[in-house]
Specification:
GO terms for molecular function: DNA binding; DNA-binding transcription factor activity. Keywords: DNA-binding. InterPro entries: Cro/C1-type_HTH, Lambda_DNA-bd_dom_sf, TransReg_Diox_bact_type. The chain is an all-alpha fold and 139 residues long. The chain is built from nine helices and no strands. α2 packs across α3. The longest helix is centred in the last third of the chain and has 15 residues. It is elongated, with a radius of gyration of 18 Å. It starts with 22 loop residues before the first helix and ends with a helix.
């Protein structure tokens, strides 16, 4: 099957972490997306679980000093926490192939996403990758 060209792609959905969201909402979305509990995020940032709950509901005033730790724990930049996806050079973060895969994944049903995740996990641990990583090391 030939690769899809940009006009063939489904429309890109609104990003999950938009700039219009409050910082607490972005923290909650990112935490959940990474499968972290409030307790886990609290431990990795050196605060209590109730502090994380307060951040996520917009009731905390002491988040500023912890932004760097929060961002590191969530695997994003501080600017991502503050501003969302807008303003980020997404094309410098993801290749065009990665962006295409992401758009196609988002267009799938929940059931199909599960199938795709299973296939991707199998492919990422397959024997072909061992040879590829050995070739990279010797190059």
């Amino acid at each position: 099957m030939p690769p899809l060209s940009p006009p063939d792609l489904p429309p890109e959905p609104a990003p999950a972490v938009q700039s219009g969201l409050a910082i607490g909402s972005r923290i909650r979305i990112l935490r959940r997306a990474r499968g972290l509990t409030q307790d886990t995020l609290a431990m990795s940032t050196g605060v209590s679980r109730s502090a994380v709950a307060q951040w996520e509901t917009g009731r905390a005033g002491q988040m500023g000093s912890k932004l760097r730790r929060i961002a590191e724990a969530l695997g994003v930049s501080v600017s991502m926490l503050k501003e969302g996806w807008e303003g980020l050079a997404t094309d410098s973060v993801l290749s065009s192939e990665e962006m295409t895969l992401l758009r196609l994944f988002r267009a799938c049903s929940t059931e199909d996403r599960g199938v795709l995740m299973h296939v991707a996990q199998k492919l990422s641990t397959g024997p072909g990758l061992e040879h590829e990583s050995e070739a990279r090391r010797s190059a």
